[in-house]
Amino acid sequence: MVKTQDHDVRWDDVRIFLAVHRQRTLAGAASRLGLDTSTVSRRLAALEADLGQRLFERTREGVTPARAAERVLAAAEAMEAAHARLTREASDLERLAEGTVRISTAPGLASVFLAPALPRLRKRHPRLAIELEASVGALDLMRHEADLAVRSVRSSGAELVTTKLVSAPWIAATAPRLAQRLGTLEAWSDAEWIQWDRDLASFHAARWVAQHVATHVIALRTSDFSTQLAAARSGLGVVLCPVPYVTALGLVAVDFAPSLAAAAASWPTDDLWLVGHRALREVPRVAAVWDFLTAELRSP
Q: Would you say residue 159 has pLDDT above 90?
């Protein structure tokens, strides 16, 4: 039980709150829990009275979580995880993993690796729903803007947990037909290139291209990595990208003369990290996605 002012919040009531939050109807929650709708309604009302907050707005279509519900959701799920461990059910993720998991990651990672993997995740955990926030700007896990993040920069903070997935070197790559036509490069500017736009001029890959490739052979500037990759696959030019993308998209490494080896040795290497909030790490829905992403993205 959890104390709130003069009342105890019981696990049975928290369980009803979570079911209602996930099902969005009292009848759906009742069916999930094996209770009748009137019991769910009565005990939800009692929980709201104990908390002194209205958790859901009732409508003809069902219920909509109020702001208070979103504030207590993480604590409720932490209580769910603790209860699962106590009753030796935490390992039974096939049965317990349900609800929505929000993942923050970069657009390229989302489109090339995460989105194609979702059918396998759904087959394993059909009660899970994924919200994929694919943007350059990272969401704040400390403020629960996302449940998990896949990032190339390691996050720090006492409330965060991280695990390293892979170290990925960047290489110069292009479509196979263009690579064959180019042959062995004697100078980097012997090929047309795809470069980051000026807003990301300080990015390590953009700095390398700016240092070694002449401006007049830049065929495309864009800071959208997915667009860069699509252009490279079409044969527009050479792109600097991490090795896993080369393999996944059917690109090939560009051949170059020994005189260019020193410059190639300065290609960047990125680490890929999986990050989560410590309070949510054991929650079944988050744990299931954490384990899945680790298996999918980690180097063998």
A: no
